[in-house]
Amino acid sequence: MEELYSRLAPVWDATLTMSGFKRGLCRYVLKTVSECKVSEPKILDVGCGTGLVSFALLKKFPGASIVATDVNEDMVRKAEQLAKRKKIDEKDLIIGRADVLDQDVVTLSDDSVVHLSPNSFDVVIASGVLEYTPLDLAVPKLLSLLKPDGLLMVISIKDDTSVGRLWGKVYKFVPIEKSELKRSLKVHGCRHVIHSPLTYKEFPANMTRTGLLAVK
Ligand SMILES: C[S@@+](CC[C@H](N)C(=O)[O-])C[C@H]1O[C@@H](n2cnc3c(N)ncnc32)[C@H](O)[C@@H]1O
Questions:
Q1: I need a labelling partner for 147 at 20 to 30 A (CA). Which of 36, 169, 170, 179 fits?
Q2: Mean pLDDT of successive 10-residue segments in the chain (216 residues)?
Q3: 69: CA distance to ligand 1 center in Å?
């Protein structure tokens, strides 16, 4: 999996932009964060890839402070390059390496380490990443970083379509069953868990991805 994403890192942003996937995915995320009605949200984007969701969030919410992390060094490097090109201030967006299972420890490119505080984020976004981790270890870790009443947004690959299953083969994971994800979120203490699918307005991202929103 590491090797796959290292190969994809140079072309990830361009491919998702040209296919329209980025527009659809970001539309969904921006709409959902807007509904939280937090004017200067503190957001954690885990498994951020090349940072496309974080960049869109900063454009829409200039007062936001975002931490974007990925386990893959090549993805992180590419995200840093894009952030530099977009002239994004490091105080608004921290980009670093972290495994979801050890999410509170973020290693920056100069090898310094930032420790994320418990209960400190308004929104945690996990887009296309929980498929790679044991749910019952990842979910409590992410919830521990959310403020009380904070929102965990899980955008996962559809488990109930042949496109989703095909995607799973390409990207080397088994799609998460919605019922299993809901169970894990509830067992680990989320107050509300709702299925909030991407709509046709988010095409083509709605073909392969779906959303679950959970309030801590
Ligand atoms: C399908 S991509 C999603 C990228 C981005 N979030 C998006 O929606 O376009 C999955 C990303 O998750 C990362 N990833 C996989 N396992 C991870 C883990 N245990 N911790 C953090 N990131 C991980 C991969 O390196 C890859 O960048």
A1: 179
A2: 87 92 97 93 98 97 96 97 95 97 97 97 97 96 97 91 78 86 96 95 93 97
A3: 9
For atom 16 of ligand 1, the residue with the nearest CA is: 132
Cα 156 to ligand 1 centre (Å): 11
Q: Which domain holds residue 191?
A: 2-98+109-215
Which residue's alpha carbon is at the smallest distance from atom 14 of ligand 1?
47
Question: What tokens were used for 47?
Answer: 């498994």
What residues contact 89, with CB distance under 8 A and at least 6 apart? none
Query: φ and ψ at 51, to 5 degrees?
Result: 85, 15
pTM, 2 dp: 0.96
Q: What is the CATH number of the domain that holds 7?
A: 3.40.50.150
The count of domains in the chain is 1
